[in-house]
UniProtKB/TrEMBL annotation:
Protein location: Endomembrane system
Pfam families, sorted: DUF202 (PF02656)
Broad class of the protein's primary localization: membrane
InterPro entries on file: DUF202
Listed name of the protein: DUF202 domain-containing protein
Topological category with respect to the lipid bilayer: Multi-pass membrane protein
Residue span(s) of domain DUF202: 14-68
Keyword entries, A-Z: Membrane, Transmembrane, Transmembrane helix
Amino acid sequence: MTGEPHRARADLYGAQPERTALAWQRSLLGVVLGSLVLMLTALREEMWLLVLLGAVLAVGVAVALVVGRPRDGRALERLVVAVVLLGALGATLAVAQAVGAA
């Protein structure tokens, strides 16, 4: 009988917690892969600061992917910051390439 309330609670939520965890993992993995693409492109253009910043972002997010489990609303805030940083670094690289090509 002690397992009954736990099973009822698991039936109530279904697979939602697992889907949420998988969605977090996909999002973090996407930021890591995007950072690696940014680093490789910046490396080809010899933009060492962007290579360094991309590496810091990739390592930070990879550590969060391996170690952390999102348990609060702050995890979403951190993910949004990582995505915005990746976008800003990518935009900086694009502008630098456009200015250099002109």
